Amino acid sequence: MTEPLEGADWAARADEGRRLAPSAGEPAADAALLALLLDATDSAVSRRTAEALARTGSPAAARLLTEALALADAALGDWIATGADDGSEPAPTG
């Protein structure tokens, strides 16, 4: 696994969250995913990582989302929750 892409632009960090989401439950992936969920630089990273985790539907992904919500401040928690809500909707087509 890789460490989060510190210093990379927000889109690259969000892509890393989507790439790692299926690996939730693996210790190295969990550490990187939690850091991406709690990204203090750009809430879009948190939202898109949360969406990707919610789409996996795994217990490990749910645990990470719950942990991130417990650690986040109110504003970031809102973005994580919004991403999780987005992930519970059907994936866009086309």
How would you characterize the overall build of this protein?
- By secondary structure, this protein is an all-alpha fold.
- 68% of the residues lie in helices and 0% in strands.
- The chain has helices at residues 10-20, 27-37, 43-56, 59-71, 74-88.
- Helix 1 (10-20) runs antiparallel to helix 2.
- The protein starts with 9 loop residues before the first helix and ends in a 6-residue tail after the last helix.
Give me the secondary-structure topology.
Elements lengths: L9 H11 L6 H11 L5 H14 L2 H13 L2 H15 L6
Short description:
With 94 residues, the protein is mostly helical.
Main features:
mainly alpha, 68% helix, 94 residues
What is the H/E order?
Answer: HHHHH
What general outline do the C-alpha atoms trace? Answer: globular
Helix content: 55-70%
How many strands, which pairing sense, and closed or not: the largest β-sheet?
none
Oligomer: single chain
Number of strands: 0
Work out the helix count. 5
Helix vs. strand class: mainly alpha
